[in-house]
UniProtKB/TrEMBL annotation:
Pfam families: cNMP_binding (PF00027), HTH_Crp_2 (PF13545). Residues 33-153 form the Cyclic nucleotide-binding domain. This is Crp/Fnr family transcriptional regulator. InterPro entries: cNMP-bd_dom, cNMP-bd_dom_sf, Env_Response_Regulators, HTH_CRP, RmlC-like_jellyroll, WH_DNA-bd_sf. Signal peptide: none annotated.
Length: 251
């Protein structure tokens, strides 16, 4: 931990958990969570939260941790990982600046259901569980906001369950590549993943082995559906991947 708990966004703080010197916590670019609070509760929050810095690959929250505080990301990126068996993990997604995590444990007081790891140097604010409950009782907009967030995550997990249940490894890979990609600048018919995701991470996204992912990626490249550059993976015919997924679901 570092510095006093009363540091608002952007104010100077002290030393991080690993002894790394911190001059300031970056200002949040956009945090819908904070917009749900009136001035009184926003000031109470700023006087109670604790800024923490995590280095790349450091565990932010561990599976089954009993602590039930809430976290708000100020800068950086964390990966959400579900452990499904000994030695097996599935990547549920990534979270970035302005997003919350830890709300399930904060709401029901049960151990964490997933682990979160910093992908890059990441600054967060830890919000005490008790204060979170008080804000929920007094701020209806916050309660509605969290309901919407939980609804969106439930829908996403429902889609992931369907994907794991009805699609084989090949088509789970197609679906994940499409989900992680964005339209390629200057070519609306293609999509791009930049920076390129490594095969072991893709394997954890879809619940498969790295070897199986490597075989399928090589097949996509051989068939002209995937191009690799130094800084990106390019899906040259994303519509073809979508059609293949749809055809599989109709069988």
């Amino acid at each position: 931990m570092f510095g006093p708990n009363s540091c608002p966004i952007g104010q100077s703080v002290g030393v991080g958990p690993n002894g790394d010197k911190m001059n300031s916590i970056p200002r949040l670019p956009h945090a819908p969570f904070l917009e749900c609070l009136d001035e009184y509760w926003l000031e109470r929050l700023k006087s109670a939260w604790t800024p923490i810095r995590f280095q790349s690959q450091e565990t932010v929250v561990d599976f089954d941790d009993s602590r039930a505080d809430l976290y708000l990301i100020a800068a950086g990126q964390v990966r959400v990982i579900l452990r499904v068996a000994v030695g097996k993990e599935i990547i549920l997604g990534e979270l970035g600046p302005g997003q919350l995590f830890g709300e399930l444990a904060a709401l029901d007081g049960k151990p964490r259901s997933a682990s979160l790891t910093a992908l890059v140097q990441t600054d967060v604010y830890r919000i005490p569980e008790q204060l979170f409950h008080e804000m929920l009782d007094e701020q209806p907009r916050l309660a509605r906001f969290l309901l919407v967030c939980l609804s969106e995550r439930t829908r996403d997990l429902t889609r992931r369950i369907a994907e794991l249940s009805f699609l084989d490894t090949r088509h789970r890979l197609y679906n994940t590549l499409l989900r992680l990609s964005r339209q390629r600048p200057g070519n609306e018919d293609q999509r791009v993943i930049s920076p390129p995701i490594i095969h072991s991470d893709l394997a954890e996204h879809i619940g498969a082995s790295r070897e199986a992912v490597s075989r399928e990626m090589s097949r996509l490249a051989k068939n002209g559906l995937l191009e690799r550059t130094r800084g990106a993976l390019i899906l040259t015919q994303p519509d073809e991947l979508s059609r293949s997924i749809s055809a599989t679901l109709q069988l």
